[in-house]
Amino acid sequence: MLTNNIPLLKTDRLILRALQPTDAPNLFEYFSQDCVTEFYDLYTFQHLQEAEKLIKTWIDRVQESTGLRWAITLKSGGNGLIGTCGFHNFSTENNRAEIGYDLNPIHWGNGIMTEAIQAIVNYGFETLKLHRIEAFIDPANHASRALLHKNSLETEGVLRDYFFEKERFVDAEMLSILNR
Ligand SMILES: CC(C)(COP(=O)(O)OP(=O)(O)OC[C@H]1O[C@@H](n2cnc3c(N)ncnc32)[C@H](O)[C@@H]1OP(=O)(O)O)[C@@H](O)C(=O)NCCC(=O)NCCS
């Protein structure tokens, strides 16, 4: 099921490619905005090095076969990263993985992440042979819920005080899609 190779995935408007250390300035541009980190277990970035560290974490996970994270780029906009998406917390024995994503706010509301999620969910089911793809969101993250519902993930319930993030406990809404 697991792979340490990031395949190039293409959609109508997007190319999903492997992350590179040189993507850090583009990632920093939006992780330095409060609206992006509001529902993350990360504080808003103050320094470019924080973006470099996050990209290194994602690249290391790929090399260790514990995660897959793609850089989202626009076919019409050169090779520059505008967002990321991928899988982590693989459970090999249960054939499942968790999905995660983020997008530069200048591109919000244009269906970009819907396109990206469709591509990686298909890859997860068809190539990785996952049985279940799941997501945890903050119940107040309405954009994230709408995105996942649009991509056929269903809400299963809310786990109370499930994560300790930024000095406080937060609930987690769990969603999933099954490969049946
Ligand atoms: C969540 C996020 C990736 C959505 O990306 P996006 O490209 O704007 O989403 P899409 O344009 O594909 O929208 C998908 C659906 O969600 C809806 N939606 C998007 N933003 C919304 C918002 N703020 N409130 C309510 N619905 C919203 C869209 O209307 C669309 O549904 P529709 O086509 O039926 O109208 C983006 O808001 C983001 O990066 N947020 C910050 C990071 C984050 O929270 N990541 C997830 C952590 S769990």
TrEMBL record:
UniProt-recorded name of the protein: GNAT family protein
Species in which this protein is naturally found: Wohlfahrtiimonas larvae
Domain N-acetyltransferase intervals: 14-171
SUPFAM superfamilies in the cross-refs: Acyl-CoA N-acyltransferases (Nat)
